[in-house]
Write a sequence for this structure.
């Protein structure tokens, strides 16, 4: 009986940071992360390139939080180690759930938000990370606040605050 070729994995599953077909050899798990229910796990091999708090209205609504905390990594510095078939995607611009980048990456089971996947970068949410002794490393402290003009809470932490995008909007004074 001819059963035809096996069904090909969706394209995104063959690339960083998912890569079920060609997992990277010798990936150093510097940090590990998981969703709330544990169905999905991933790791990071190095410190984030940058870390931001985003106070935009989309982040507030989608995260159900006053602002979003995101750590920016190269996609090759991230590797999903469990549960990529349990992932769900959501593009906030067009509502697509088909892994159209940029896309939210969440666990399908518990709906924990895990990251914003851009075309080139992976903006992981440090809230998913399991830091040693529960202490946030200095590398995960935000370098700046973006969309501070739409904040719902003041964060007087001394980090630069931009009204909108960094480099594309004016810097706002710190208020208490
Ligand atoms: Zn989960
Ligand atoms: Zn935002």
């Amino acid at each position: 009986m001819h059963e035809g070729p096996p069904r090909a994995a969706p394209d995104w599953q063959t690339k960083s940071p998912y890569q079920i077909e060609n997992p990277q050899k010798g990936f150093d798990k510097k940090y590990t992360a998981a969703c709330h229910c544990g169905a999905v796990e991933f790791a990071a091999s190095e410190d984030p390139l940058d870390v931001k708090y985003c106070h935009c209205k989309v982040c507030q609504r989608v995260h159900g939080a006053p602002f979003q905390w995101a750590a920016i990594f190269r996609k090759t510095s991230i590797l999903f180690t469990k549960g990529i078939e349990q992932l769900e995607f959501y593009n906030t611009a067009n509502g697509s759930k088909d892994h159209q980048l940029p896309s939210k990456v969440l666990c399908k089971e518990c709906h924990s938000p895990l990251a914003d996947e851009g075309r080139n970068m992976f903006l992981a949410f440090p809230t998913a990370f399991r830091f040693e002794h529960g202490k946030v490393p200095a590398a995960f402290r935000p370098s700046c606040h973006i969309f501070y003009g739409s904040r719902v809470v003041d964060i007087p932490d001394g980090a630069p605050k931009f009204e909108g995008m960094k480099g594309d909007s004016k810097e706002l004074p710190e208020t208490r």
